[in-house]
Here is the input.
Amino acid sequence: MNIENTKAQMRKGVLEFCILSVLKIQDAYTSEILETLKEAKLLVVEGTVYPLLTRLKNDGLLLYRWEESTSGPPRKYYGLTDEGKEFLNELGSTWTELSDAVNTITNKN
Here is the structure.
């Protein structure tokens, strides 16, 4: 079994939750989102994040706006919709329950 594949699948499973959590703090453009994930050691590539942002927007969880940049082309800033905030709260509750269950199981001994 390939451990790297398993680890990648685990990261992908929480990526949506992490991106929504980043945007809970403040609106951000893709490079800022990627940098925040990188700082947290959740390494992902742009090719993974862009389609996810589009899907979240199409699902009504994100909105975006264009802002002029002093150092290049305009930037697309993403933010949470009200539905996105509710969705994130539900994911947070589910994460807590799942994390507690996993910790209970894996810490037995």
Q: What stands out?
A: The radius of gyration is 16 Å. The CA atoms of residues 55 and 61 lie 9 Å apart. The first strand starts at residue 28 and ends at 29.
